[in-house]
Design a protein that fits this description.
It is a single chain. The chain has 10 helices and 16 strands. Strands 4-3-7-6-5 form a 5-stranded antiparallel beta sheet. The protein has a 5-stranded mixed beta sheet with strand order 9-11-14-16-15. It has a two-stranded antiparallel ribbon with strand order 1-2. Strand 1 and strand 2 form a beta hairpin.
Length: 368
């Protein structure tokens, strides 16, 4: 019988399907994998590691891993240098190029090869499962539906009372209706977060969506005029596969937050700036797992501001509901952003470039 064949029913030979070799399997991983030798130097990397560290394999090989991603938390670095110990570190800040990003790290010793380890790095925010805060949104959405009925009754009663009150007391009734309306708007946003319906996606020009979002903000009386909006567009960028309305809403939320950060306490004052940049990340094998398959996300839209950055205590939680650094913030804007982006099979993340003094929020979306 020929090599690579097996005998099927009735003695008929069947050619066995070829299996990817180990190198191909490692290349297909969406998280970074590094092989570290007994001296702490990088001996092998996969494509995702090149992408995450922003450097080719030829430049990474032979260098010390802690020099590439450090300085690290001293406790983590000490465990990494103790090469025969396994390690799991979550929400770890590392330096990549001129910026910082947050990752989960694992280090696994290799039995039979003393001192050698396999290290994995997975970027926080690039692939968050629909658990935790997002999974808990269903219950508030159901509760929101039940709250709306008594709210409508309260509003109606306040309007009726307003007709019978003296002129001096009418402002109290107006305050009731205004507060009811504010709560109703908050409930509407909670229901959006809890919704499992996904809008249709189609080919969409990202630059048109960006300019439409900015125009909408200006028409609504936004303070955009107090901030320089800098466009750095790639004119050759292909269309994205997105829901146009949802993409505009995402951009309005992110640009609005960037504007507030640039103008707020600790911002750049008269030099306040928001940069909207698009690029095709052709060198990146960046993808997300959706419905059990990898979805390439080569189109990046980044919104950057020169504000003071995100409070370190909130950095790992900004996409969770009811988390906000604004005194009057509801903490639902970025949660809605994450939901809408995930509905379009995309990802959203953030990082800080301390040297340039910029905070970046990055959308990665599929190409149409």
């Amino acid at each position: 019988m020929a090599a690579g064949a097996i005998e099927g029913s009735g003695g008929v030979p069947v050619v066995a399907e070829s299996r990817p070799d180990p190198r191909s399997q490692l290349s297909g991983l969406i998280f970074a994998l590094l092989l570290i030798d007994r001296d702490g130097r990088i001996a092998e990397v996969n494509h995702a590691a090149e992408d995450l560290l922003g450097t080719s394999a030829s430049r990474l090989l032979g260098t010390r891993m802690v020099d590439r991603i450090g300085p690290l938390d001293p406790r983590v670095e000490a465990r990494l240098l103790a090469s025969d110990e396994a390690l799991v570190a979550r929400d770890l800040a590392i330096t990549v190029g001129t910026g910082q990003t947050r990752i989960n790290l694992t280090a696994s010793p290799l039995g039979g090869f003393p001192g050698w380890r396999v290290v994995t790095l997975s970027q926080i925010g690039h692939e968050e499962a629909a658990t935790g805060g997002e999974a808990l949104l269903g219950a508030p959405a159901v509760l929101a539906h039940e709250i709306k009925n008594p709210l409508a009754a309260i509003r109606g009663a306040a309007q009726l009372a307003s007709r019978k009150l003296a002129h001096a007391d009418k402002k109290l009734a107006r305050m009731i209706t205004d507060e009811v309306d504010r709560i109703a708007r908050l409930i509407d946003r909670m229901q959006q977060l809890g919704s499992t319906r996904t809008g249709p996606v189609d080919a969409c020009n990202p630059h048109e969506a960006i300019r439409a979002a900015i125009a909408t903000m200006r028409a609504a009386g936004s303070t955009l005029g107090e901030v320089e909006i800098r466009e750095e567009f790639d004119p050759s960028l292909p269309p994205v596969l997105a829901n146009r309305d949802a993409l505009e809403q995402v951009l309005i939320n992110l640009i609005s937050n960037a504007r507030d950060a640039a103008l707020g306490p600790g911002g750049a004052g008269a030099q306040s700036c928001v940069i909207v940049q698009t690029r095709f990340v052709s060198g990146l094998a960046f993808s997300a797992i959706r419905n059990g398959r990898a979805v390439p996300l080569p189109i990046e839209i980044s919104i950057s501001d020169n504000g003071p950055g995100i409070d370190p205590t909130l950095q790992g939680h900004v996409f969770e509901p009811f988390v906000s650094s604004k005194p009057s913030g509801q903490g639902l804007g970025l949660s809605l952003v994450r939901k809408l982006v995930r509905d379009m099979n995309g990802n959203v993340s953030h990082d800080r470039d301390p040297r340039a003094g910029l905070t970046h929020f990055r959308l990665h979306l599929p190409q149409a």
